[in-house]
Design a protein that fits this description.
mainly alpha, globular, 0% strand
């Protein structure tokens, strides 16, 4: 069975990278918004970033509780930072 390859617009790739860098945005939020699983996000980051930046990012997110919904404490219910709306004017 062949995997369906998803092609993203440049703006979507930029947003995926931005969400992946945010400490409080779990991979599940990226999956919900873009249909991109954790391994696909890793592949995008590997492809789009300099090797040293990718390595630094991987070290930061590996095992980080805030990047994985199942590892988060129950009291953390949001996907985004409380300041995100004022930063990005995001209405969601």
């Amino acid at each position: 069975m062949r995997k369906k390859k998803i092609h993203f617009k440049e703006e979507q790739i930029d947003r995926i990278i931005e969400m992946a860098w945010e400490d409080r945005t779990p991979f599940e939020a990226i999956l919900n918004q873009f249909g991109c699983k954790e391994q696909e996000v890793i592949n995008i980051m590997r492809r789009e970033m300099k090797p040293s930046s990718f390595k630094m990012w991987r070290e930061r997110v590996q095992g980080r509780a805030t990047k994985h919904q199942k590892l988060r404490p129950e009291e953390v219910e949001r996907f985004k930072c409380s300041r995100q709306r004022s930063i990005s004017m995001n209405k969601k």
